[in-house]
């Protein structure tokens, strides 16, 4: 996960990544969130389901980072293909008004 974290930190092209079912721990996800997702502006879908480290707090933090990226990309005038957005990775306990503002609902 550390190598993936380092690669995605400054990547500006990758939009979707699925790491579900890879036995990723909470500390690895926390590191990924802190060192990659918070700095990355291009990733709009990060699916980490079926990992022991994915708890409710982590799901919400991931969702907020991805929503920030969706807003950033749209403000740049870049089209987002609907198939890129995995709603299960961005909708966790996010108020409907925020989702409506971004046109995701």
Plain-language structure description:
The protein is built from five helices and two strands, in the order H-E-H-E-H-H-H. With 105 residues, the chain is mainly alpha-helical. It has one domain. A two-stranded parallel ribbon has the order 1-2. Helix 2 (26-37) links the parallel strand 1 (16-18) and strand 2 (45-47). It is globular. The N and C termini lie far apart (31 Å).
For this entry, give a set of tags:
2 strands; two-stranded parallel ribbon; mainly alpha; about 50% helix; about 100 residues
Which secondary structure elements does this structure contain, and how are they paired or packed?
Elements: H1 2-9, E1 16-18, H2 26-37, E2 45-47, H3 56-75, H4 87-90, H5 96-101
Parallel strand pairs: 1-2
Helix pairs in contact: 1-2, 2-3
Give a brief outline of the structure.
With 105 residues, the protein is mainly alpha-helical. It contains five helices and two strands; from the N terminus they run αβαβααα. It is 48% helix and 6% strand.
Total E-strand runs:
2
Contiguous uncertain segments of 5+ residues: none
- Alpha plus pi helix count: 5
Question: Could you state the oligomeric state of the chains shown?
Answer: single chain
Q: Count up the domains.
A: 1
The main β sheet shows up as: 2 strands, parallel
Strand-residue proportion: 5-15%
The backbone outline, from C-alpha atoms, is globular
The mean pLDDT is 88
- How far apart the termini lie comes to 31 Å
What's the helix-strand series?
A: HEHEHHH
Kindly name the structural category: mainly alpha
- Helical fraction equals 40-55%
Could you tell me the radius of gyration in angstroms? 13 Å
């Amino acid at each position: 996960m550390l190598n993936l974290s380092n690669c995605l930190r400054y990547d500006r092209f990758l939009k979707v990544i699925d790491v579900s079912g890879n036995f990723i721990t909470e500390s690895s996800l926390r590191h990924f969130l802190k060192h990659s997702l918070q700095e990355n502006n291009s990733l709009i879908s990060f699916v980490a389901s079926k990992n022991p480290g994915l708890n409710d707090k982590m799901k919400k933090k991931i969702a907020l980072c991805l929503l920030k990226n969706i807003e950033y990309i749209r403000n740049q005038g870049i089209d987002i293909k609907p198939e890129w957005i995995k709603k299960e990775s961005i909708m966790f306990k996010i108020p409907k008004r925020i989702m409506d503002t971004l046109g995701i609902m």
